[in-house]
Amino acid sequence: MSGYLKVRDTCPVCSEPLHHQRADDGPAYLTILIVGHIMAPVILWAFVAFRPDPLVMASVFSVGTVALSLFLLPRLKGAMVGFQWAKRMHGFGAPASG
Questions:
Q1: Would you kindly state where each structural domain of the chain is located, as residue ranges?
Q2: d(CA 41, CA 81)
Q3: Which residues pair with 17 in a beta bridge?
Q4: How many CA atoms are closer than 13 Å to the CA of 75, on its beta-carbon side?
Q5: CA–CA separation, 67 vs 85, rounded Å?
Q6: CA-CA-CA-CA torsion for 67, 25, 79, 30, nearest 10 degrees?
Q7: Nearest to residue 90, comparing CAs of 23, 32, 2, 36?
Q8: Fewer beta carbons within 10 Å, N or C terminal of the chain?
Q9: Long-range contacts of 38-41 (CB under 8 A, 24+ apart)
Q10: What string of DSSP letters covers 19-83?
Q11: Residue 10 phi/psi, 5° resolution?
Q12: What angle do CA 82, 84, 87 make, to 5 degrees?
């Protein structure tokens, strides 16, 4: 990565071209899926066990959801690009032209 979500044009170690990767919205969908499956049972457990004030519960779980999303998103983006590379999708492993 060259930024939070921007993929470099080439790998700094092996010079593999990465400019043609097509992760698109996949990492965002996976992030929502994972965060939702983690946070939903935790929210239910916290509500049943502690009965917190709704404002406190919304504040705590909003911060937790955003933090977990920001942690997972770039890692899932890298995993998607790595999966595309491993499966030789979208131009990875194509013979060099010229």
A1: 26-86
A2: 30
A3: 10
A4: 7
A5: 28
A6: 60
A7: 23
A8: C
A9: 38/68, 39/64, 39/65, 39/68
A10: TT---TTHHHHHHHHHHHHHHHHHHHHHHHHH---HHHHHHHHHHHHHHHHHHHHHHHHHHHHHH
A11: -140, 155
A12: 110
CA 51, 55, 61, 64 torsion-angle sign: negative
Quote the tokens at residue 91: 């131009």
pLDDT digits (tens, 9 = 90+) for 11-26: 889 888 888 888 889 9
Instruction: State pLDDT tens for residues 52-79.
Output: 999 999 999 999 999 999 999 999 999 9
The token pair at 25 is: 């919205």
- Tell me the C-alpha distance between 81 and 28, whole Å: 13
Q: Nearest 5°: CA angle at 33, between 8 and 62?
A: 95
Residues in the chain: 98
Helix pair angle (26-50, 54-86), 10° resolution: 150
Residue 10: strand pairing partners: 17
Sign of the CA dihedral 63, 64, 65, 67? positive
